[in-house]
Amino acid sequence: MPKTKMFILENQNIFKLIVLISSIFAALYWKFIFLHKTYIFADIGGDTIESYVPTYTQFIRDLKSFSFNLWDFNVGVGASKFAAVSHVFDVFLLPMLVFPTSKIYIGLVFSLYLKTLVTGIFFYKILCLYNIKDTKIKIVCSAVWAFNGFMVLWGQHYFFATFVAYFTIIMYGLELLLRKGKPYVFIFSIFLLAVQSVHEMIHITVFGAMYSIAHVLYYSNSSLKAVFLKLLNVICCYTLGLLLSMLSFLPQLIVLFESPEGGKPFSLNQISIYSFDIILQNIATFISNNFFGVGSSYFGYFNYYEKLQQSTSILLLLFCFIALAEIKGNSKKLRNLSIFIISIFILSTCTNIISYIFNLFQLPDNHRYTYTFSFIICLFGCLSLDSYLFSNSKQKFVEKTSTYFNEVLLTIIFIVSIYSMFLNTNNDLKYNLKLMLYVFLVWVLIVAYKYLISSYINNPGKRRIVSNVLMSMVIVEIVLLNYPTMNLRNFAEINHYFKDPSYKIVNEIKALDKEFYRIVNDNPLTAHNDSLLENYYGVTTYSSLNNRSYINFSSETGFQYWIGGKKIGFVHHNLADRRLLDFLGVKYFLQSHKESLNNTEIALADGNYHLLKNNDYYNFGTFYNKIINYDGISDYDPEVKRDILLDNAVVSIKNQNIVNANYKIEDNYKNLDYSFSRKSGVLVESQLNNKIAYVVEGTDPNVQVDLNISAQNDSFIEMIVECAKQQDIQIFWKDDKNEFSEANSTRIPVTAGKHKINVPIYINGSDTINSIRIDVGQPGEKINLSDIRIYERPNVTAMKSTKIPLNITSFKETKITGNIEISNNGMLVLTLPYDKGWHAIVNGVEQETIEVDFGMTGIYLKPGSYDIELYYKNFYFTIGIIISGITLFGIILYNLIINTKRKVGMKNFKGN
């Protein structure tokens, strides 16, 4: 028989599975396939816009240009590639090379299709190893796993779908290793996942360890020594996979360990039982992720994404329950295994302890491991379906148990839907109607499955027809229950995202201005990673989560963006301080609507878009002859620190002796020498210059200060406020021509306790102020105000004029050259996040770099002329490559030796 025909016959069931998965995929994703919608979401889960699409665009752009750099200046103000490596080593992105970067939204759907196919095919192979004889069951159950709730929901986050695909290959490799002693699929699959994500390796390692122990104990009748050796074999193969991945895994691990976000200490009091709302949601996700609706209308805001996602199929859930319910069977191993699995599911639904375990007692709110639960449901449900329904044994038990299960499930659905409808939707009629329709659909599916199972058991002559209908129902269920997840959402519009006119202006200025500079884009539709998408150097980021120096700089200067309690980079520039942008080298402001900015001029214009050139921007490298110690300014407010950076290089105390940081900072504070001139609604207890204590008597308490100094427009007021209650404080200011008004005031919240606050002063049409009024306090409350000062901001243009810029002669992502001539001792400050991988060659001699300015890079220089070369080399990447290379060589050598011995043995056998 020809090999082609033999191959087709042996794999015809896989071809059937491919056709089935393709058909379901087309039904679920047809809007994206035919470009009615983009596979880019603008609602909850909008990380697609903020991070993934820009990062993948850059990745594909690099691949097409045959360039891969270990450092990327397009990420914020610069970051190691290993800070966001989950995006970089995704092999499923490779087919997207056939699509232009402007059509990436098409490639993302195609990539997801490949992941879905791989997931389904390898699950089918796992079922074959379990000797499931009914082909129909294997095909349908593999399709269910390929479209499990986690895969469909988190597939939009792209690399999460990659994890599910790799996980399935890992489980297939593990089965091959445990059953047949074949290690290479397992080793290679561990390598594939480990090069991509340290975090996800944690989840899969925990699950894989539990699965391996349960598998060996259940199937092994050997001695304890044999069990130990089998598990040791798994550990060795797992270790080989990790060693192979060290070229990426080791640098990732170092980044994680050095990160301030690497983890939090665990304590037992962090373990808690979920609220009733959360437990209901967790139970409902066994049925469908969409049980409570989609978009912004789902029950328990954010929990739709951030809690458990474990839906598969109601039929498989039913038979998984049947398998686990048989704990009274004769097999003690089966009973113990069932009890263990049931306990895991109950604990995960009701408490956060399982979340802690799967995350190695860190990140308790991270439920990204729940696809492992769906795997158990699919596997046990399929085994039970094949064992109990399509054979003649235990069918009465099946009918009785399924009846009980369906009654319980319908009761839960009724309770959850009523609870949601009347207590959690604010009488939203439209939402309640949708919820009722969805509940009715689930109810119909449950009743239909119960009827079909009963018909199959009680009508032997119609079993073939009923089984076909039953399997068809599962396919219909996959489509119906998953369709809302992908299609009832808010999508990014192409003309707002990929055809933004700013593209044209960015490309024009890049063609005209070849120097290194940074751009900020104020388009409200722009992602934080827009610089990745449009391929320019910016200041904002959404993926530099683990860069310690980057986070430290943004924290010290007061500009950090918070998501779920994590600092992830600078806020969008239009919220940022202009002086910080000057320091970071922002040469151009790209505006969607023209605004007047100090000391700027129009460089380019296209319709409503204007590119303003900033005449106050600092170069990538700037020489400072003033150096100060961090300890001297550590208590200063972020606003003051930003000004300090423009005129001084700030070093830590550990570098003081290296750089002779003897300069003392000029104090731009003006202490107010005055008496509080007017008071209203307060009873003063004590009053001195710069401080006052009073008890509030009226409903509009305030104290007024007539200044004996003039404060410039570019200033701010600073004071310490001590109050007993959380409230707002409002500060008014005026000149001698005007009265106090809401327009010339700022209201900020203060919490109970003692706090330092500062308030910027903005007066239109006036250069000075002569009075301020402070409104704070509630009736009967005691208020203490002290250390009231005015801080005058120095002139940026004047400060910049005294600085010497580094003349950059060549700028590449990992190699920068330039020259500078100086006449004083001082610090060359580079707006480059400090990383030990960056090295400096000064006049041919390597010189130590110093961490300066809260996380940037500095080089201490004495008077003279210098040629400077900066290059980036990741030490751990080099070590990782060596380890990976040695491991690969060892595996190849081992195979050659084994194969040679085998051939010699065969020759000797034939000779004998």
UniProtKB/TrEMBL annotation:
<feature type="transmembrane region" description="Helical">
    <location>
        <begin position="308"/>
        <end position="325"/>
    </location>
</feature>
<keyword id="KW-0472">Membrane</keyword>
<feature type="transmembrane region" description="Helical">
    <location>
        <begin position="370"/>
        <end position="391"/>
    </location>
</feature>
<feature type="transmembrane region" description="Helical">
    <location>
        <begin position="403"/>
        <end position="423"/>
    </location>
</feature>
<protein>
    <submittedName>
        <fullName>YfhO family protein</fullName>
    </submittedName>
</protein>
<feature type="transmembrane region" description="Helical">
    <location>
        <begin position="14"/>
        <end position="33"/>
    </location>
</feature>
<keyword id="KW-1133">Transmembrane helix</keyword>
<feature type="transmembrane region" description="Helical">
    <location>
        <begin position="465"/>
        <end position="483"/>
    </location>
</feature>
<feature type="transmembrane region" description="Helical">
    <location>
        <begin position="231"/>
        <end position="257"/>
    </location>
</feature>
<dbReference type="InterPro" id="IPR018580">
    <property type="entry name" value="Uncharacterised_YfhO"/>
</dbReference>
<feature type="transmembrane region" description="Helical">
    <location>
        <begin position="337"/>
        <end position="358"/>
    </location>
</feature>
<feature type="transmembrane region" description="Helical">
    <location>
        <begin position="104"/>
        <end position="124"/>
    </location>
</feature>
<feature type="transmembrane region" description="Helical">
    <location>
        <begin position="185"/>
        <end position="211"/>
    </location>
</feature>
<keyword id="KW-0812">Transmembrane</keyword>
<feature type="transmembrane region" description="Helical">
    <location>
        <begin position="875"/>
        <end position="897"/>
    </location>
</feature>
<dbReference type="Pfam" id="PF09586">
    <property type="entry name" value="YfhO"/>
</dbReference>
<feature type="transmembrane region" description="Helical">
    <location>
        <begin position="435"/>
        <end position="453"/>
    </location>
</feature>
